[in-house]
Amino acid sequence: MAGLIDRVKSLIAGGGKLNNLVFIVFDSCRWDAYRAARTPNLDRIAAAEKRYSYASWTSPSHYTFLMGMVPHLSPKGVFASNVYREEFALWSRRLNMADVEFGKFVPQLSLPHFLKAAGYWNEGWVSLPVLNPMTSMSQHFDKYELAPSHNDLSLIFRQLQFRDDRPSFFFLNTGETHYPYLLPGEKPGDLPHISGVHGVFKHLDDFLKNPSEFMQDKKEDEFFTPAQFRAFYDKQVACVEHLDRVVGEFMERCPRNTYFMVMSDHGELFGEDGYFGHGPIFHEKVFEVFYLEGRLP
Question: Higher-confidence residue: 9 or 234?
Fold first, then answer.
């Protein structure tokens, strides 16, 4: 334990100024799709590594993030308590704060609550409706909004203003890499369509009102072809490359004491073993995510 504490202390930069923290989630981005993309700007922060999500869909993954946890490495031969302890110890480096420990996160188990007590301005912008401000996700934030577009991180960045009087925590979720994998201004076009909010609530209300009539009158969406699945994958790669450019532009106006944490909340299935999407799926591709962190270069 003493060795861990010494290692963390050695990582803390000099001076007493707390870091601004920018936490960005590329929703539904697969590890291998991120790895296939060209990401010169994000590479300046750190090389991404393959990690594993604690959950297979958006809401529980983000609740975990707001507890102060990030995607894990699935280490063997260790106790889970040791993994959690080491993860919380790393917040000292991220925040440039010498006295971060798990005990200071309880009983709320809330990263924004902890940061607010430390003097941070907490601001959240989310693109997926399941994270909207009416949910408990918004607790302990000074400002928490549903983004003006579900697939335009640049619009979110335009809303962000760093403060001179205190450090900022920006918690951002963006949906370019979520189905239907659209760039700003694009229409679905030739990509297959799943009805409902981003394909999630597929005819749900109609089915619940009258299941038997719904099944008689409604033809279910046909499953996708291998070529269509490949189109989804390729488009997600293109969306990652777009987001890299957007993050790069934002980095140009960040204060030097800004620390980035960038990741996906879960993966996506593109036909592997008969699966599409994420959520009620137990498959390695839906748990494989990318993760990177580092101070502004």
Answer: 234
DSSP calls for 2-36 = HHHHHHHHHHSPSSSPPPEEEEEEETT--HHHHHH
Q: Determine contact, residues 183/151, Cβ cutoff 8 Å.
A: yes
Percent share of the chain, pLDDT over 70? 83
- Give backbone dihedrals phi and psi of 293, rounded to 5 degrees, phi first: -155, 155
Q: What angle do CA 125, 128, 129 make, to 5 degrees?
A: 105
Helices (H), 142-182: 153-159
Instruction: Say what the pLDDT of residue 192 is.
Output: 53
> For the chain, where are the alpha helices, taking DSSP H only?
2-11, 31-36, 40-45, 58-65, 80-89, 91-95, 111-117, 153-159, 204-209, 211-217, 226-251, 284-287
| Cβ atoms of residues 48 and 24 within 8 Å | no
b/e code 154-177 from CB counts within 10 Å (16+ = b): bbbbeebebeeeebbbbbbbbbbb
pLDDT of residue 209: 54
pLDDT-based confidence at 14, cuts 50/70/90?
very low
Residue 232: count other Cβ atoms within 10 Å of its Cβ.
Answer: 22
Alpha-carbon distance of 167 to 18, in angstroms, equals 6
Task: State how far Cα 16 lies from the chain centre.
Answer: 29
**Which tokens is 208 given?**
């619940």
The CATH number that domain 2-295 falls under is 3.40.720
In the predicted model, is pLDDT for residue 284 greater than 80? yes
Helix (H, G, I), strand (E, B) or coil at 291: strand
Whole-model pTM: value is 0.85
